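The instructor's notes for this session suggest beginning with a concrete chain rather than abstract definitions. Hand out the sequence below and ask the class to guess, before any prediction is shown, which regions might be ordered.
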Amino acid sequence: MGDNVSLVIIGVVILLVVVIVGMTIKVVPQQRVGVVERLGKFHRLLTPGLNILIPVIEQVRTYHDLRIQQANVPPQTVITKDNVQVQIDNIIFYQVVGPEQATYGILDYVSGVRNITTATLRQIIGKMELDETLSGREKISSEMRVALDEATEKWGVRIERVEVVDIKPPIDIQEAMDKQMKAERSKRAIVLEAEAAKQDMILRAEGDKQSKILKAEGEREARIRQAEGLRKAQELEALGQASAIQSVAEAEKARIEMLKQAGLDENVLAYKSFESLNEIAKGPANKVFIPTGAMDTLGSMGAIGEVFKAKAGKEAGK
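After discussion, reveal the predicted structure:
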């Protein structure tokens, strides 16, 4: 009987020791803190790692997670400035930066953040019209974050980000917006098609213009080259004729010199020159221009020719 009592006592002592050790030693994970009260009054914070408490006198009131957390706010139906009801769904990202204020400043800071979000959202949307609301998600998020951050500063909570997930207008307005969107798309398609046709006409006209310009330039270049070729051909022909005349003249000059050296008089030489000119003029492409002052000389040359012919006849009769 005594042994059983001893075992019970030992068991109770061991249990008390385990309880006391459990109340004395506290291990806090990373990114978490504990709020310690001494005799019901805030005393200190438990930091991550191993912490020692005084049993019975000190106790942990609550633990706070210092990581960024999110609070899903239920969809809210709010009224815009132009009296249109819209349903808005948003998410709040917050972080506990003052564990003491989060413990004693408000009973439930999560519910407080959600409620203040709803009130702030109604105030902001009430100042905006429907079109501005649908296109102003970033503006709504920014204004809500500033307003919530000011309201939750006393709670030891900092609002990191506010995201507007969805904005749903009434069904009839949504249908009207869909029709308007389809009309805008059809209008845009017609405008784009007209622009494409206009651009095509411009490009075709530009191409036709360039083609005509190139064709005209080609024809002009061809005419220029043809005229240039004709001019060069005429120059070459004239040079050939001049060279031929010069050659004949030089030959005649040489013959006259030889006649002079043979002792013939000037009248005979003039007559021979006249014969040479007569032979030159027989060519189809040759033209000989004789000054008017030389006509008398040419008349006497004819008489001299008759004399020479008579002499030739007499010698043949002998």
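Then share the key points. Residues 291-295 have pLDDT under 50 and may be disordered. Residues 8 and 291 are 170 Å apart (CA to CA).
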